[in-house]
């Protein structure tokens, strides 16, 4: 093939790409117009006070269909991410959402919020998990994002405890593959580092790596990885050799340099986050339900709580215990199971539990994480 033929072929391909781009752009704007009309219909039918613009079950269904009909060459998850952002931008035309998350900016919780809601949101970083709950309860934020468990370090107790007295419902979940990086300010020589800052869970998730490569550096636990990144940059500007363990978003936000990437001890290290809000979510077809249960302090109490799941064929996916704070050696159980609380089998389980426990609180039914 001659150079002329190659040039013509390339030009033809670029013309085709330009034409496709124009078609995609027109279709996105057509979709956005439909979204605006959806908002108008909702306002006309329900009124400005009652209308709910964000429907977690609807978005989960749309993203599942995107992945099911995808034929490549883009992967299913990549295609779903593109649609996720299109949906986020269209929803912002109806009503921009304010999302509270465990801050400061640059945390994995912010990354989870952006993954779940897209980038067309108003971000509201909070200093503590209970502040996220209060922000949503007061109506200052539409939804909140909080970490609930890590695949290697286990449950986040503060999140579970926040559900005891809260009226918020779980509206969704999102999972983030956690990659930790060792970061320093651009002017810092890594060989001079004497202290490493990070959140206590991140330090634990990188324990073996740190023992092997940085055994003499003092490990300092701080409130978040983003705070560790900020402190590392501040220290570097003051001529001090301090490193931080944080993620890519914090690295970019604070202008740090990566010394070593992906230093977590387990490559499949994943954190699960919950979306909390004031609404009950209808079934999406692939759902999960979370319960808070206060058990009676008597022999066989735990068995009687678990037996209905087996009898009704409901798959329990998680069981956690926390002190009840109401009585000495009293405990509260947190249970996740597959299905929506409106499903017949799930209703039967919950009915049995209400007869056997002193309290059963449905924290929410919500779509299983799509991305």
Automatic annotation (TrEMBL):
Q: Which residues form the Prephenate dehydratase domain?
A: 98-278
Name the NCBIfam families for this protein: CM_P2, PRK11898.1
Q: Which UniProt keywords apply?
A: Amino-acid biosynthesis, Aromatic amino acid biosynthesis, Coiled coil, Cytoplasm, Isomerase, Lyase, Multifunctional enzyme, Phenylalanine biosynthesis
Please report the stretch or stretches of sequence annotated as the ACT domain.
290-367
- Which organism's genome codes for this protein? Maribrevibacterium harenarium
Q: Supply the EC number(s).
A: 4.2.1.51, 5.4.99.5
According to UniProt, the name of this protein is: Bifunctional chorismate mutase/prephenate dehydratase
Where is the site Essential for prephenate dehydratase activity? Answer: 271
Record InterPro entries: ACT-like_dom_sf, ACT_dom, Chor_mutase/pphenate_deHydtase, Chorismate_II_sf, CM_dom_sf, CM_II_prokaryot, G/b/e-P-prot_chorismate_mutase, Preph_deHydtase
GO cellular component assignments = cytoplasm
Highest taxon, organism lineage? Bacteria
Which residues, if any, are the signal sequence? Answer: none
Its annotated compartments are:
Cytoplasm
User: Which PROSITE patterns does the protein's record reference?
Assistant: ACT, CHORISMATE_MUT_2, PREPHENATE_DEHYDR_1, PREPHENATE_DEHYDR_2, PREPHENATE_DEHYDR_3
The UniProt entry's coiled-coil ranges are: 10-37
Which parts of the sequence belong to the Chorismate mutase domain?
4-98
Reaction catalysis annotation: prephenate + H(+) = 3-phenylpyruvate + CO2 + H2O; chorismate = prephenate
UniProt cross-references to CDD domains, sorted A to Z: ACT_CM-PDT, PBP2_PDT_1
Identify the pathway. Metabolic intermediate biosynthesis; prephenate biosynthesis; prephenate from chorismate: step 1/1; Amino-acid biosynthesis; L-phenylalanine biosynthesis; phenylpyruvate from prephenate: step 1/1
Q: Does the keyword Transferase apply?
A: no
Q: Which GO terms describe its biological process?
A: chorismate metabolic process; L-phenylalanine biosynthetic process
Q: Which gene encodes it?
A: pheA
Q: Which GO terms describe its molecular function?
A: chorismate mutase activity; prephenate dehydratase activity
**UniProt main location, coarse:** cytoplasm
Alphabetical list of SUPFAM superfamilies matching this protein: ACT-like (SSF55021), Chorismate mutase II (SSF48600), Periplasmic binding protein-like II (SSF53850)
Do you know which Pfam families this protein is assigned to? CM_2 (PF01817), PDT (PF00800)
């Amino acid at each position: 093939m001659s150079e002329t033929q190659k040039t013509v072929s390339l030009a033809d391909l670029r013309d085709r790409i330009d034409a496709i781009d124009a078609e995609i752009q027109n279709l996105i704007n057509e979709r956005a117009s439909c979204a605006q009309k959806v908002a108008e219909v909702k306002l006309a039918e329900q009124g400005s006070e009652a209308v709910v613009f964000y429907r977690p079950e609807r978005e989960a269904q749309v993203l599942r269909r995107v992945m099911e009909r995808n034929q490549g060459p883009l992967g299913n998850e990549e295609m779903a991410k593109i649609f996720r952002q299109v949906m986020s931008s269209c929803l912002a035309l109806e009503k921009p959402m304010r999302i509270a998350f465990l801050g400061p900016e640059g945390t994995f919780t912010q990354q989870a919020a952006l993954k779940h809601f897209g980038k067309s949101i108003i971000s509201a970083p909070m200093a503590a998990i209970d502040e996220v709950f209060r922000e949503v309860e007061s109506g200052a934020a539409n939804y909140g994002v909080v970490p609930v468990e890590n695949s290697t370090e286990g449950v986040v107790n503060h999140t579970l405890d926040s559900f005891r007295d809260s009226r918020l419902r779980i509206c969704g979940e999102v999972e983030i593959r956690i990659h930790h990086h060792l970061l320093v300010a651009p002017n810092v020589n890594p060989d001079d580092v004497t202290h490493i800052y990070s959140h206590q869970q991140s330090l634990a998730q990188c324990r073996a790596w740190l023992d092997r490569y940085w055994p003499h550096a003092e490990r300092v636990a701080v409130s978040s990885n983003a705070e560790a990144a900020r402190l590392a940059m501040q220290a570097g500007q003051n001529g001090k050799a301090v490193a931080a363990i944080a993620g890519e978003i914090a690295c970019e936000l604070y202008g740090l340099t990566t010394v070593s990437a992906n230093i977590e001890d387990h490559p499949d290290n994943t954190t699960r986050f919950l979306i909390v809000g004031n609404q009950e979510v209808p079934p999406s077809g692939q759902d999960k339900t979370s319960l808070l249960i206060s058990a009676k302090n008597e022999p066989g109490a735990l068995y009687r709580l678990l037996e209905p799941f087996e009898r009704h064929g409901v798959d329990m996916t998680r069981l956690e215990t926390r002190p009840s704070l109401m009585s000495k050696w009293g405990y509260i159980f947190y249970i996740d199971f597959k299905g929506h609380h409106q499903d017949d089998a799930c209703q039967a389980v919950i009915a049995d539990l209400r007869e056997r426990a002193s309290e059963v609180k449905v924290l929410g039914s919500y779509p299983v994480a799509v991305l």
